[in-house]
Amino acid sequence: MKITKGALYLLLIVLLGLALRTISAHYVDIGSDEIIYSLIPYNIISAGRLSTVEQAPLYFYLVDMGYKLSEGITLISTRWPSIVFGAFGSLIIFLISMELFKHKKAAYVSAFLFAMSGFSIRWNQEMDMTAYFFALLSLYFFIRTIKGEQKQLYLTALFLALGVMAKPIVLLFVPAYLIILIWQGWNTKSGLLHRHERKIVYNKKTGKVLLIAGIIMILVVMPVLVYNYLLYQEKGITDYYFTVLAGVGNNKIYAGQEAELWTFTRFIGVSKQILFSWMWKYNAVILIFGFLGIGFAWKKDKYGTALLVLTIAFLLLYLAGKMGSPTHYVWIPIVLSISAGYGLVRIHEQTIPRINFKYVMALLIILISINTLFVLKEIIPLRKNSIQNVLHDYATENIPADAIVVLDPRIYRGIYAWAFYNRHYLEGTYFPELAKKLDNFPGEKQNLPLYYIECGPGKNCGWKPEDFQRIYDYGKQLSATITPQMKKIQELRTVDTFIIYQGMINAPTSIYEPIDRTHTHWYTPVGWKYPENAVDTYTPRTILDKLLNSFGFFILYLDVLVALLSPALVVYLLWKRSD
Asked: What ranges do the domains of the chain cover?
């Protein structure tokens, strides 16, 4: 791409997006779901896992690369794919806008709006943004497909499938693709089926393209298919999605984890909250001009606009009736940014054309910047108010690697699994039995540092109130037994209080193994140190099974490689357009 004024604008937009998303990643507290999604990747590559019971593997492999290149699990290393793909998403938005509207000003505005999107900055966690980046690329190639470049459907399928490999949520866009493909193809007589002289004609060329695209999708997601086949064959179980949504496999391991049933009441409530509460709060400009811009966009390109609207519609229709997690809805500001940029420019052209657009942009930049500052003001205190982050920071800075850390059972398991992931931590319920067996462990005894983390006054130390009450009496009794022999050294105060005690334990280092074997969270051994403890461990036995497994890994590594190179592909597409 030539170093033009336009290229410089886009570079600044990407850098701005990177900076804002990095700040957000550093300060936003980590939730219970993200604890799962940040622990599963830790050492997943060296463990050689083809997939997981929780999600498809692509995002986890990308995160683990960040762990290996950094200091292990931190908020930023956990979220680096969302940071990078979120920032580069602005460039795809520019490309899509240009493809739809052929209007550079609108494309720059759309890219800028998403880079500064308060909603996207605030909720740029978990794997959703990574999956949506690939969905955006797929959308771009699909728009080129319906504009006559049929073979672009191969790239459409490739990147849609990569999105599925990051998070299956992007499968919700498939109906939108099919509707547009049928509608546009029927009207232009280029689709799979169309009317000719009162007869319905089958287009063999289009059929061949669709077949190859389908094969590409299947190949890209082959790691998940192979994993589930081998796992089901050996243990009769499959991953969460195959079991709960498709009904394949034994559902006992996911008992109580099923998704909420879809309800119309929840659909209305969540939709109102997303669109008219959170979007209004974080993205008022995108929300207003996004909806206004849909009318202008429809006049310019009805098929492309219908595609954008349908992706939002199917996402909301399914998800809003089942769950309200804001990270899932980052797709809404992505799509509305595209129509908002075009709508804002067209409104300017039709209402105040005599005012130079650069003054309009200056005002827009000021308004958006003020909104972003308010978003950052809300985000920055979240780190110090998060019990997970407070414990994690304390462990990193103060607890030596050879220490044994005993946790009050009144502290939620996911919190300390994340905070002490690289320490020899032990839930308090195991400690009395372990202490009785100290003489049974082989090796020479030595004085090892011992820490006890107690849940002090506050809320519920991460538990739901009913679960906290269930464990409260035992935790209080355990603390009364352990703490008199230890020295109180620190109190960590946030929404809860954690009291830190220090002492020594005379034990051989062989005690570490039984302690570390207790480290599991959400069906998965923390750090994959003992992968045989995973519920989804299987062993390919026949030659065919071994070949399938190897083929699955070959495709998985290709998927990861394509994912890593995809931001460079976006830059290449921009450079090619500038020629």
From this structure: 5-381+558-578, 387-533
